[in-house]
Amino acid sequence: MERTWWKEAVIYQIYLRSFQDSNGDGVGDIPGIISRLDYLQKLGVTVLWLNPCYPSPDVDNGYDISDYCGIAPRFGTMEDFDRLLAETHRRGMKLVMDLVVNHTSSEHPWFKESRKSKDNPYRDYYIWRPAKDGREPNNWGSHFTPSAWEYDETTGEYYLHLFAKEQPDLNWENPAVRREVWKLMRFWLDKGVDGFRMDVINLIKKPAGLPDSPKAPTCAEGYSFDCELYANNPGLCDFFREMDREVLRDYDVMTVGETARVTPEFALDYVGEPERLLSMVFHFQIVELRDGFTWPKFKAIQRMWADKLWGRGWSSQFLQNHDQPRCVSVYGDDGAYRTQSAKLLGTMLHTLPGTPYVYQGEELGMANTPFTDISQYNDINAKFDYSELIAAGKTPQQALAVLNRYSRDHARTPMQWDASENAGFTSGTPWLMVNPDYVRVNAAAQESDPDSVLNYYRRLIALRKERPAMVYGEFTEYEAGRGDVYVYTRTLGDERLLVTLNLTGEPAEVRLPAEGVPAPLLCNYPDAPAADKTLTLRPWEAVIWNA
Ligand code: GLC
Q1: End-to-end alpha-carbon separation of the chain, Å?
Q2: What rounded mean pLDDT belongs to the chain?
Q3: What's the whole-number mean pLDDT along residues 258-283?
Q4: Active-site residue flag, 150
Q5: Which residues does 209 contact at the CB level (< 8 Å), separation at least 6?
């Protein structure tokens, strides 16, 4: 298998508005990131992925871009960005940008032109349709609004938006749109950025003829939100091929596609060797289990992806991002076993096949925030879900209970640096509340504690750099049917690593698949257990063995 830097990478996601504020306006910024680069270098991560930092009206926290080649003043200046890039590179790390080109902001100059008249040169940059039988052109629902169509009075037509109405979808069928995208990608690559995380990139190809969804209505207003219909459409790879030919192949960069509803079969179209249109994708089969989550299902999904992609295309691992609640609250135990379970999840993330993505604060075991009122939420998605739940007859308490499990705002609360006011994130008023547990859970406290989640992550990431089997080793699972433990090996030539994880708060016994007695390399308790043919794992215990 070809060895590349992005397969060996540990990628750290920076949601910059919540990372570090440097000027007291309550919003994280680029100088703030620069002041924390030493922390990131010491953590050992090798690539930083920056959420959108471009000018934006911020309807969807920067995912509605009004200028692709600028820096939002609230985050700093282009000089600040250039300094961030240089300082990141100087520390031996790389920087990956968010590429959001399924849609723009409705404040983008292209859209402002497009809506002016039907014969405007920019008209065809977006997807406009006349009314059908006096209403929307089809029954599509959007992520953040009931209908995916918005009527525009100036020209008497509707435009398509799969997200907010302030996020009109670009018309990728228009070659001029594609040329604009290649140009803006080159703008950043020529500056020296090391790749792109591509926002909802498998939605850029719409189904031919924009047919009605056959799904029953999925929202109170009667529209059908049908991501299967919007995603992975035939012809998508032609866009990727053109992107590769026109831009990517001239640079040594990585790309990761955010691809909802992707199956291993679709993924192989995108990441399959030797064509390899994208380096890797994010799939959502695990996070989408939601209330149906069980460890056997999790393990089956991992097994399926490992089997289907092994030797054929690369993959990624993530347990959370800025759109998902905190992983220690979802998959671990954010109460009594918070430290152990946060370390266990990190162990799993760095030892399963694929490049691991660590979301800011995950290395501290940051947990969900106990929001008590809808006014404490910021996210457009939370507000939409809340209104739909109320419309469906739920009480405010019931609606809040749903949001408190899944809201994207859990991930977005400020980074917990220390025990001072606002967790050391800002000297002003933070744009989103700080999780009140910051007085206990913060980077400064963990720095001086050898058994902290933070110090464990440092050892874990260092181990991944020393042991190629953690990256390139073949994956074999044992005890597959069990929901209480996760046991697997990664084998590369003579090197065999065994991972034993207890997924519960009770002791669990496992039979060791190794011949001979394995030697512990890393354990999330201060002392590693003694191993013989069987092993009793303590609650949420994780051990990596040389086997
Ligand atoms: C992606 C982003 C999410 C955003 C959406 C629309 O899913 O991760 O935050 O709301 O795309 O751009």
Answers
A1: 23
A2: 97
A3: 98
A4: no
A5: none
Residue 43 lies in a domain: yes
438/539 same-domain check:
no
Atom of ligand 1 nearest to the CA of 64: 12
| Residue among 14, 60, 282, 410 to mutate when testing ligand 1 (max atoms within 8 A of CB) | 60
CATH code of 499's domain: 2.60.40.1180
Ligand 1 pocket, residues with Cβ under 6 angstroms: 60, 63, 100, 163, 199-200, 258, 322-323
Q: Are residues 23 and 61 in the same domain?
A: yes
At 531 the pLDDT is: 81
Same domain, 429 and 448: yes
Determine the average pLDDT of the residues in 518-531.
92
Expressed as residue numbers, the domain containing 529 is: 471-546
Tokens of 105: 């902001």
126 in a structural domain: no
359 and 295 in a common domain: yes
- The residue among 500, 479, 476, 502 whose CA lies nearest residue 489 is 476
How much is the pLDDT for 530? 84
Alpha-carbon distance of 38 to 284, in angstroms, equals 32
Overall average pLDDT of the 321-332 stretch: 98
Model pLDDT for residues 412-449, shown as the tens digit of each residue: 999 999 999 999 999 999 999 999 999 999 999 999 99
Residues 364 and 376 grouped into a single domain? no
